[in-house]
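User: Can you recover a sequence for this backbone? Please restate the input before giving your answer.

Assistant: Of course. Working from this structure:
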């Protein structure tokens, strides 16, 4: 079902959030816990997404629903966005991670050293994830979409043509735990 066109990305995101909020409220009418409400929503609820003629607009209904259910449950535990921070400028991406009860770390990833990006859609209760591969190490860097700045990073990756926009739309619409990579590697 298509809603309508919006003048701004903010208006489109607000409408998508309203759709998710209404779905969660519908599923909340039972005495279920917030976890059960989230699981029911993820299985049966509407999954709005935004298509833009201009810059890509990133909105994850699943991530927003997780956040709303965490608040619904009164869970005051530290969220991932409180300790995993992503910033970037014209030259590089910076990851600063200060996980509870773990050693803090940070890294700078230069844009011009990135050779591949993969996007992994989360299952019912897991965050979507960005995997950044550079020519400076064999392992990738994992950035959860729920990280502070994660959505903005994804938007910038697409803007810089480091990930195919059509594949990004396909990934955003996926409801299963799946990996999408760009550039695609053809079998030999």
């Amino acid at each position: 079902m298509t809603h309508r066109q919006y003048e701004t990305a903010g208006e489109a995101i607000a409408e998508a959030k309203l759709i998710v909020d209404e779905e969660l409220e519908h599923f909340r009418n039972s005495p279920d816990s917030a976890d059960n409400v989230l699981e029911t929503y993820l299985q049966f609820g509407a999954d709005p997404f935004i298509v833009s003629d201009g810059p890509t607009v990133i909105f994850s209904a699943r991530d927003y629903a997780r956040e709303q259910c965490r608040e619904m449950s009164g869970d005051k535990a530290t969220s991932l966005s409180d300790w995993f921070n992503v910033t970037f400028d014209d030259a590089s991406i910076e990851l600063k991670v200060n996980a509870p009860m773990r050693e803090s770390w940070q890294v700078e990833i230069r844009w011009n050293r990135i050779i591949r990006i993969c996007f992994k859609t989360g299952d019912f209760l897991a965050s979507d994830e960005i995997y950044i591969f550079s020519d400076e190490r064999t392992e990738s860097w994992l950035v959860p979409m729920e990280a502070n700045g994660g959505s903005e990073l994804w938007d910038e990756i697409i803007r810089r043509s480091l990930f195919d926009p059509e594949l990004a739309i396909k990934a955003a619409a996926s409801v299963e735990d799946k990996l999408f990579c760009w550039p695609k590697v053809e079998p030999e």
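That completes the design. Residues 79-188 form one domain.
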